[in-house]
Amino acid sequence: MRLLVPSLLLALSCFAADNVVDELAPQVKTVVPRVVKPGDTVVITGIQLGAERVQDLYLSDHKFDMKVKVLDQSTGMIKFRIPPFAKAGRLQLLMLMKPDKDDDDPKLLEIPAYLLIEDVPVTEITQAQPTDKSGKAATQEQKGQKDPQNP
Q1: What pLDDT score does 20 carry?
Q2: What is the pLDDT of residue 142?
Q3: Hey, what long-range contacts does 56-59 have (CB within 8 A, 24 or more apart)?
Q4: What are the domain boundaries of the chain?
Q5: Is the pLDDT of residue 57 over 80?
Q6: What is the CATH architecture of 25-117?
């Protein structure tokens, strides 16, 4: 009985913060889609994702961190584009937090969410046909080649 009252007071004092929501770190609920290609758009939903809390967004393979372009950002959502130079593999989301005070350093927060970047197939590069001065495709006669059927 003696321990019940002090432990109850201690537990209540932990929850007695004035602005608990303002102090929360960003939390990610969903990342859609999970499998992407370079150039695709990804949407992250969660809480505390606004520009006042999240400064920058990165994708990391734990050797190289690449900054992504944020297209849209609100307190509940961040929409970003996968960089065109992103290599295939599994990448983790990192968020650079804005400092709480002017003298604090920004903090890098590792989010337990991963994206799988698929390899983009290499397409054949076709050779452009030569054109004449007007921009029209050159005929075989203009190219200096004779038609094998009409010598």
Answers
A1: 47
A2: 53
A3: 56/95, 56/96, 57/93, 57/94, 57/95, 57/96, 58/93, 58/94, 58/95, 58/96, 58/108, 59/83, 59/86, 59/91, 59/92, 59/93, 59/94, 59/115
A4: 25-117
A5: yes
A6: Sandwich (2.60)
